[in-house]
Design a protein that fits this description.
This protein is an alpha/beta fold. The chain has a single domain, classed as Rossmann fold, CATH 3.40.50.880. It is about 25% helix and about 25% strand. Strands 3-2-4-5-1-12-13-18 form an 8-stranded mixed sheet. It has a 4-stranded mixed sheet with strand order 10-11-14-17. A two-stranded parallel sheet has the order 6-9. Strand 12 and strand 13 form a beta hairpin. It is globular and about 55 Å long.
Length: about 290
């Protein structure tokens, strides 16, 4: 029995805030017309509220960005406005820096970790297999830490992870590049700026190639709060597109290299707005 228990996949105690990018950072609306239930800075307010500490400590990881100092300064200012006085900055440009940097004390003290936008492949190539990532995952599993990510920082939280393939090639089979993400969400592919940048076809390709996985496309100024590793709730001012591939009965994703346009039959698609709930299917349970 002990051996079986050791192999069971634990339910995370931590919470993820997965943001589609361009979250509102001021008290002013981003558009001339906003929904009646519009809340300025709702996503970042939610991130801080979830921490539930009188004196929260937040670390902002800007390693995905080429403008790390500027990005950190912006988030530091906002988090100060939201009552967080202890805001730390983590930024690495090489993997050697990551391996040489002992961040365990800071990670242990943090109540929230926030990954900024930029290039998601930087995050995986810098932190994959590092003590930093291992310790963060340990805390995500065993403690009520809050981990947020926006744009590239959100895409990196999942596996599989898209790292290349813009709208000019998204209709062409084999042109979407995928790797292993940071694996806070497994069998889930996150895509951001989803509506604004026309990314439906590229996410659909990933799901057709990996029908066990779920595709979650998140619009700007919109987020999915994930509790217990699977219970999603939509917040913010846009929509989330969920793509499920379990019912796909035909596609040409395997015919890459010939400039063929993608064909996929019987995708299941849901459009979810603020307040909607979505349970991530556990279609690939661990071995016991």
């Amino acid at each position: 029995m002990a051996k079986e228990d050791a192999n069971e996949c634990p339910v995370p105690n931590g919470t993820l805030v997965v943001i589609g990018g361009k979250e509102n950072k001021s008290d002013q609306p981003q558009q001339k017309t906003e929904p009646e239930d519009y809340v300025p800075m709702e996503i970042l307010k939610t991130f801080i509220a979830l921490v539930r500490r009188k004196e929260p400590v937040v670390e902002v990881v800007t390693s995905a960005s080429s403008e790390g100092k500027e990005s950190f300064a912006e988030y530091k200012k906002i988090f100060h406005q939201l009552g967080v006085q202890q805001v730390g900055h983590i930024h690495h440009t090489t993997r050697k820096e990551v391996l040489d940097d002992n961040l365990e004390e800071r990670l242990n003290a943090a109540h929230g970790i926030f990954f900024s936008g930029g290039d998601q492949l930087l995050l995986t190539s810098l932190y994959g297999g590092s003590h930093f990532l291992t310790r963060l995952k340990e805390r995500y599993i065993s403690e009520k830490i809050i981990i947020g990510g926006t744009s590239a920082g959100a895409m990196a939280l999942s596996t599989p992870m898209i790292y290349a393939g813009n709208k000019d090639v998204s209709q062409v089979t084999g042109e979407i590049k995928v790797t292993t993400g940071l694996e806070f969400l497994k069998d889930v592919c996150i895509d951001t700026h989803f509506v604004d940048r026309g990314r439906f076809e590229r996410l659909a390709q990933v799901i057709a190639s990996n029908p066990t996985s779920i595709g979650i496309g998140i619009e700007e100024d919109t987020a999915v709060v994930v509790r217990n590793g699977r219970e999603g709730e939509i917040i913010g001012n846009g929509t989330v597109i969920v793509i499920e591939g379990g019912d796909i009965d035909a596609s040409n994703v395997q015919k890459f290299g010939n400039n063929e346009r993608i064909t996929i039959r019987n995708l299941r698609v849901s459009i979810l707005a603020k307040g909607e709930k979505y349970d991530i299917p556990q279609t690939n349970p661990p071995h016991k």
